[in-house]
From TrEMBL:
Binding annotation for substrate: 38, 139, 183, 315, 426, 433-434
Region annotation Disordered: where it falls in the sequence: 48-67
Lineage top rank: taxon: Bacteria
Name of the protein in question: Beta-glucosidase
Hydrolase among keywords: yes
Record's signal peptide: none
Naturally occurring in which organism (per UniProt): Streptomyces californicus
PROSITE patterns: GLYCOSYL_HYDROL_F1_1 (PS00572), GLYCOSYL_HYDROL_F1_2 (PS00653)
Keyword Hydrolase: yes
Family affiliation: Belongs to the glycosyl hydrolase 1 family.
Keywords carried by this UniProt record: Carbohydrate metabolism, Cellulose degradation, Glycosidase, Hydrolase, Polysaccharide degradation
EC number of the protein: 3.2.1.21
Length: 474
């Protein structure tokens, strides 16, 4: 199943059907996903300079155990092996991110060819393996020099992103069919600048709201550059971690709490991107923080530049009520009005509730609000405390159950008219899990970080069977 152990692969050929099979549409995209800083390593190689995550992870107390992404899963040097793993799984698509400071170390000026060469080799390996590359241009690794100049709260960062997008598209646009501008701009804005648990670690409501707008602006400007540089057949997308929100009770106060969080978590991106407007209730809710004068004439026309599909990342729902959030809070303008209650049921190693209905709820919401918009589930998965046993096997039945439930929810959504085109499992490899360091394992392939040995978990074999079958056993 892996390129480094002797156990046989199970993903080759058709599998016999037993019982009822929940089949997915012909051409459904079966993928997996990673992010550059979480797996690449090689932090100081090939001209790469520090990103905000290099700086943040070296700041005492910010990342568990003082872990950094300096080596991570060493994908920079083991990339061909990792592509072979994906080929053995049978995935049709691979969603990866490009490291901005590896390609354009200062965030300005020409590209570094050595940095681009790594991604050229990656794309070549994927295409040779029959796997379609899906490139994400920004997965949180802002060049530190741009943060030193103000980061995402500053308007110029959006312009720098558009320039960077053009460099990557110019180098790789002929061979990558699907492009994503940003991954989870909510996290970049509100975890990075609001409550500071992500890089760059700032705690400023105004900075978070400014960052959210400039990320939207960067997305729209990036789309325009990509349209100019890519073939007409290219698919251009955006990935949002939309929040599945539920009121604790059916009281007016709890419903209003959901509205407030929906504004600052979901509609702060959906409305500018798809409607060319700001949510007016968000503007009212945040009046004590800002008058939104940083939104200039023409900005919302740029943010709403049309895209071809929307990616959504989902892990768990949130239960919201009237109350007060902890400080510092990522919920700019809402923290004095809302509280969160742990959902009932089983939980992952992240202490996140397991509830696949939340994914179904998000998908059907998108169907109702944007009925002609194709959707990709660009991240879904779970961390558990799995380990290699003395025989070298990694048994992760909880992850298998999680994935099965969530793919069943996707199948149900498709049956109910949602145009879901693909599913990208998070993640291919155990990796550097941001502020949790190496203590949380999301991969379907176990990584021994001391030896860098890869071992397929039971969930990898399960996913390979699903892909080969084209669906789930009912």
């Amino acid at each position: 199943m892996t390129a480094v152990d002797s156990r046989p692969a199970t993903a080759t050929g058709a599998l016999p059907e037993t019982g009822t099979v929940l089949r997915f549409p012909t051409g459904f995209r079966w993928g997996t996903a990673t992010a550059a800083y979480q797996i690449e390593g090689g932090a100081a190689e090939g001209g790469r300079t520090p990103s905000i995550w290099d700086t943040f992870s070296r700041t005492p107390g910010k990342v568990r155990n003082g872990d950094t992404g300096d080596i991570a899963a060493d994908h920079l040097h083991r990339m061909p092996e990792d592509v072979r793993l994906m080929k053995e799984l049978g995935v049709t698509d691979y969603r990866f991110s490009v490291s901005w400071p590896r390609v354009q170390p200062t965030g300005r000026g020409p590209a570094v060819e050595r940095g681009l060469d790594f991604y050229r080799r990656l794309v070549d390996e994927l295409l040779e393996a029959g796997i379609k590359p899906v490139a994400t241009l920004y997965h949180w690794d802002l060049p530190q020099e741009l943060e030193d100049a103000g980061g995402w709260p500053e308007r110029d960062t959006a312009h720098r992103f558009a320039e960077y997008a053009g460099l990557v598209a110019g180098a790789l646009g002929d061979r990558i069919p699907t492009w994503t501008t940003l991954n989870e701009p909510w996290c970049a804005a509100f975890l990075g600048y609001g409550n500071g648990v992500h890089a760059p670690g700032r705690t400023d409501d105004l900075a978070a709201l400014r960052a959210a707008h400039h990320l939207n602006l960067a997305h729209g400007a990036g789309v325009r550059v990509l349209r100019d540089r890519l073939p007409e057949t290219a698919e251009i997308s955006l990935t949002l971690n939309l929040h599945a929100l539920r009121p604790l009770t059916d009281t007016e106060a709890d419903r209003d709490a959901v509205r407030r969080i929906d504004a600052v978590a979901n509609r702060i991106f959906l409305d500018p991107v798809f409607h060319g407007r700001l949510p007016q209730d968000l503007v009212a809710d945040t009046a004590s923080v800002t008058d939104w004068s940083f939104v200039k004439d023409g900005d919302l026309e740029v943010t709403s530049t049309p895209i071809d599909s929307l990616g959504i990342n989902y892990y768990s729902p949130s239960v919201v009520s009237a109350g007060t959030s902890e400080s510092p809070s990522p919920w700019a303008g809402a923290e004095r009005h809302v509280a969160f209650t742990p959902a009932a049921g089983p939980r992952t190693a992240m202490d996140w509730p397991v509830d696949a209905n939340g994914l179904y709820e998000l998908l059907t919401r998108l169907r109702d609000e944007f009925p002609t918009l194709p959707v990709l589930v660009t991240e879904n998965g779970a961390a558990y405390d799995d380990y290699a046993d003395p025989e070298g096997n990694v048994h992760d039945p909880e992850r298998v159950a999680y994935l099965d439930a969530h793919l069943t929810a996707v199948h149900r959504a498709i049956a109910d008219g949602v145009d879901v085109r693909g599913y990208f499992l998070w993640s291919l490899l155990d990796n550097f899990e941001w502020a949790y360091g190496y203590g949380k394992r999301f991969g379907i392939v176990h990584v021994d970080f001391a030896s860098q040995r890869r071992t397929a978990k039971d969930s990898a074999r399960w996913y390979a069977d699903v892909i080969a079958r084209g669906g789930l056993e009912g």
